[in-house]
Amino acid sequence: MTAYAKFVDVTICTGCRGCMVACKNWNDLPIDTQAYNGTYQSHDKCDGKTWNVLQMKEFETASGGFEWLFRHQACFHCTDAACEKVCPENAITTTDMGNVVIDQEKCVGCSYCVYNCPFEIVALADYVNEDGKIVQRAQKCDMCDSRIHEGLVPACSQTCPLDAIVFGTKEEMRKLAEERLAIAKEKFPNAMIYDPPGVDGTNMFYLLPEGPEAFDLPVNPKVPTSAVIWKDYAQPLGKMALGGTVMAVATAFITNKLFNKGHGHDEEGGDIDESTKE
Amino acid sequence: MNPNVVSEDYLLLQKGIMEEQSKIKERIEAELQLEIKKDDLNLDIPVLPQLPSTPVPANLYKEAVITISTFLKDQSKEIEDSLIQVVSDLKDEQLVDWVKASIKFDTEYFHNFAQNNALAPWLPHFIAEQAIRPFLQLISSKCVSFIQDVHVMGTCPCCGEPPRLAKLENKGQKILYCPRCETQWEQKRLSCVHCGNDNHENLFYIGVQEDETSKIEVCKSCRNYIKLIDTKKTFLKKQAGLLDLETLHLDFVAQEEGYGDESH
């Protein structure tokens, strides 16, 4: 399996929001008008209807200067994905290319993933199921699964006019990130690559001009302990316990059969049944 | 939707042949001491016909022919059982003729050969062509440093094959790739590779709706075309030979529209 990754160079993004439009367009997402809240940013954050949002931050540099910070915000596709861990229906999976996808037909809308996502990306949204009913299902960026498995780059990456969003193997992207970091350092001394180890690295990673705090990103995101306990300990134990129960039932069934052999017929009252029928 | 018109089986066969070819190339690279100097060359004609001695020794070429034939025989039961025997019996003079004929793309010579040896008419030329490619690719790899200075019109600067496809690389350059010898060379973006026309009013594109990654660049001046692969839209890195096959639908479209010279 080759891991692929989307690399976002925040230092060269001009905030054109082409990625937002391309995403809505390819994934056929509905319009979600939000009230003006005093910033240029169109949406508060990513949700089930808007899979990527261009975050706009007004930033004061150390020398007292002013800088616009624009960040393409979308699912991080964590290698050790908390959403995948907590999903009780196994509706969330990591594909052979490393992107994390949600099977809308398996999802029951329990929102465990919503509460456990370290980056607050996954959200419930309307989904029309097989019966034509509108139900609430967990939705998020799937890194354009339908495109990348056909050899096409994700819609946001294709539309980006500055190559700020690039898609390729994780190895290539890391190399590119290092090259771009060296250039970015000249202008932004605090520039860094944000590929947090707490979730075992992400398959969408950033080159940030400032530390993660400047973008309201967690400094060291982790898979919630409850999720680890649930998936790595409780569930296997539960399955073992279930296995034990099944074994006990099966043994009871066989022993019953064995010991009741011979006179089981009378006890079942076959004769009575026949007489009542008549 | 995948607009590819070539069957999966055939693509797999071609991928297999390409793997064999890269193995052959490694082997001949070790044995063949080939050195090509820019100063010895006339930079107005392709490199291959200018080489003083034959770059394809008969014994190595025979090995390549046998490797390709054996691979084909293993892949398909329809191929005549006598094939391996026939190619193993090739004499040195015959091999020299094969090399010449395959470089010249002399289909008639191979048709006659097939007839005389009771083989399918397509088979000898196919094998000869697939076996010559590793040698051409080796020659091409020795010319990398100066190939950009070879100015030939309408052919590959290394082997003389007509250009078939180009890639639009990340910074927007048009890089031509020869599917035969794998030479790559850069060309002015807005000009016809066949006739040099750079009047933009006579150049335009034909696209296929289902195909996002490739399109056809056509020239009204010479009524010829070239296939363009946009590497910004795809992250897969494929060999030129394979890309040429996978974009065969574009050749159909272009030729139906009346572009391209049949004699190519």
From TrEMBL, chain A:
PROSITE patterns: 4FE4S_FER_1, 4FE4S_FER_2. The keyword Nucleus does not apply. It is found in: Cell envelope. Pfam families: Fer4_11 (PF13247). The keyword Iron-sulfur applies. InterPro entries: 4Fe4S_Fe-S-bd, 4Fe4S_Fe_S_CS, FDH_Electron_Transfer_Unit, Formate_DH_Fe-S_su. Keywords: 4Fe-4S, Iron, Iron-sulfur, Metal-binding, Repeat. Residues 4-34, 66-97, 98-127 form the 4Fe-4S ferredoxin-type domain. CDD domains: FDH_b_like. This is Formate dehydrogenase iron-sulfur subunit. It comes from Evansella vedderi.
Automatic annotation (TrEMBL), chain B:
Keywords: Cytoplasm. InterPro entries: FdhE-like_sf, FdhE_C, Formate_DH_accessory. Residues 191-261 form the FdhE C-terminal domain. This is FdhE protein. It comes from Evansella vedderi.
